[in-house]
Write a structure and sequence with these properties.
Elements (H helix, E strand, L loop, with lengths): L13 E9 L18 E6 L5 E4 L14 E4 L10 E7 L7 E8 L1 H6 L4 E3 L16 E10 L8 E9 L12 E7 L2 E3 L3 H4 L3 E3 L18 E5 L3 E5 L14 E4 H4 L5 E8 L7 E9 H4 L5 E3 L16 E9 L10 E11 L12 E6 L5 E4 L14 E4 L10 E7 L7 E8 L1 H5 L6 E3 L16 E11 L3 E2 L51
Antiparallel strand pairs: 1-4, 1-8, 2-3, 2-5, 5-6, 7-8, 9-15, 9-19, 10-14, 10-16, 11-13, 12-13, 16-17, 18-19, 20-23, 20-27, 21-22, 21-24, 24-25, 26-27
């Protein structure tokens, strides 16, 4: 008679865990339950490489918490039988959370021991006389998921702040936040980025290097963080509720790559006051109810300083919105202006013009000059996105004072990206800083760069017909591989050349044109 083989349980992409704890050790207050001691517990699940694969929300002042269901990435955990560590912490306002206890297990063991108590052991107390445990942990339910939410390419997040520092004389602030990440770099921009990105390499050194995948979208990940999102300010409040926003995993460098969120008090003159910041990951932002303390490094050593407020995740869900097709963006149409420029001339105002340099230091644009003007508005320009290294390539914009002897003086400069400039509606001003003056007492800036308008122009990628002749062109442009339609009209071009009465021949076809 054939022996029955045990059923093989397939490993799902993720689990949604419902967990609780009982009789946790008090970490706050008197540290004695009878005298009112308590804790603000949350749970973290780590894989064998100490990477976070699951995290719960914080529950305030509860020694027997029942957490809202949270996700655990089964694949990243090493499968059903991969070793994991479950840790319970007491959340602290200063970000220095205290461990309550931990235990080691597997997802498979959790499945077979639902509603069973696991002992939480504090590593610092292990082995002490009379010490038993720091509480009990229970897995109440495990729901299998076809996909982990944190693996969604686009997510929608809603954040709110609480008890932020006051920065204005009315006792309030006008808080907004920015997010910095190290985005994945598209392969077509890899040569522009050069050493400013980590190239993808084969992690297994024992294997022979594989040939680069020609179909791969990405060349690597940025080495330095760039701004990937900026919120609108909430006016006159210390408890802001910001608008929901969408964030792409690619811009964060992946769901588990570090990102930084900084909070500022908005000022009309562009001299925004720093409130505080925290580091996290997109995966942690996907935990509804997660609370992050805002820390100001200049204050953290002050006596009694805890934080400059907190930021809470109100909602975080995968978005049905597809990732933006940024490869279709060919140009950025921008109108720059300057305000309150410092004078570099002895008896008059400056004669400003601007230059824009790419990631390799090469100049990619120079504007016209304006004589004796501290608040110039420059002519609209169309910057090729490929020359800028994509939307996330860093650009140095320098404002100069023109001199007839060609020894132009720097007024000030700033470093931005096209993506950062695209958030100009939230805040259109960037401080211009002169490196020679930035360390002087009382120096703030040498004026402001202002974006009056910006449009990211998407142009079709394939071209069925040759381009029509443009005014001033000596030859028709050749068809480019992959293009479907003629290019859009560029600024300054009035009309494409059409056949006029009396013309003997239409535009001549060039070699290679269909």
């Amino acid at each position: 008679m054939m022996m029955m083989q045990p059923a093989v349980v397939a490993c799902p992409a993720a689990f949604k865990l419902t967990c609780c704890a009982r009789k946790l050790e008090a970490k706050d207050g008197a540290h004695v339950k009878a005298l009112g001691g308590t804790s603000d517990p949350y749970c973290v699940i780590l894989n064998a490489q100490n990477q976070v694969v699951g995290k719960s929300a914080v529950i305030k002042k509860d020694l027997s918490p029942k957490w809202a269901p949270f996700e655990v990435d089964c694949v990243q955990a090493g499968g059903l039988n991969g070793a994991i560590t479950v840790q319970v912490f007491d959340w602290d306002k200063d970000g220095k959370d205290d461990i309550i206890g931990e235990f080691r297990t597997t997802l498979s063991e959790m499945m077979t021991k639902l509603n069973t108590e696991f002992e939480l052991i504090n590593p610092k107390k292990r082995g002490r006389t009379f010490y038993k445990n720091s509480g009990k942990f229970v897995v109440c339910a495990m729901e299998q998921l076809a996909m982990a939410s944190k693996n969604a390419r686009v997510v929608q997040i809603t954040l709110e702040g609480k008890d932020l520092d006051s920065k204005d004389i009315n006792g309030k602030s006008d808080p907004y936040f920015v997010i910095y990440g190290c985005p994945k770099v598209y392969s077509c921009f890899g040569s522009v980025w050069g050493t400013q990105m980590h190239e993808y390499v084969n992690p297994k050194k024992t294997e022979k290097p594989k040939k680069k995948d020609k179909k791969s979208k990405y060349s690597g990940i940025a080495t330095s963080p760039v701004l990937i999102y900026k919120s609108k300010p909430c006016m006159k409040t210390l408890n802001p509720k910001w608008e929901a926003f969408v964030l792409e995993s690619r811009l964060c460098g992946g769901s588990n790559s570090p990102i930084t969120i900084e909070c500022y008090d908005y000022d009309k003159d562009g001299t925004h006051d720093f409130i505080g910041s925290f580091k996290t990951t997109l995966a942690e932002l996907m935990v509804e109810g997660a609370i992050f303390p805002l820390i100001n490094p200049k204050k953290k050593d002050n006596a009694f300083y805890k934080n400059s407020g907190t930021v809470k995740v109100v909602q975080a869900v995968p978005s049905a919105q597809p990732p933006a097709n940024e490869l279709a963006i060919t140009h950025a149409k921008i109108t720059f202006a300057c305000k309150d420029l410092s004078s570099r001339d002895l008896f008059s105002k400056s004669d400003p013009f601007i230059t824009i340099s790419g990631m390799n230091g090469a100049e990619i644009y120079r504007s016209e000059e304006y004589m004796n003007e501290k608040n110039p508005t420059f002519k609209p320009i169309a910057l090729p996105v490929v020359n800028c290294g994509g939307l996330d390539g860093q650009l140095k914009i320098t404002v100069w004072d023109w001199d007839s002897n060609k020894k132009h003086d720097v007024i000030g400069e700033c470093t931005v990206t096209l993506r950062e400039l695209s958030f100009f509606a939230q805040n259109p001003r960037w401080r211009l800083v002169n490196k020679k003056h930035k360390d002087k007492i009382g120096y703030k800036n040498s004026g402001f760069l202002v974006v009056n308008s910006l449009e990211l122009v998407q142009q079709p990628m394939m071209m069925q017909q040759p381009m029509m002749m443009q005014p001033g062109m000596q030859q028709p442009m050749m068809m480019q591989p992959g293009m479907q339609q003629p290019m859009m009209m560029q600024p300054g071009i009035q009309q494409p050349m059409m056949m006029q009465p009396g013309m003997q021949q239409p535009m001549m076809m060039q070699p290679g044109m269909q």
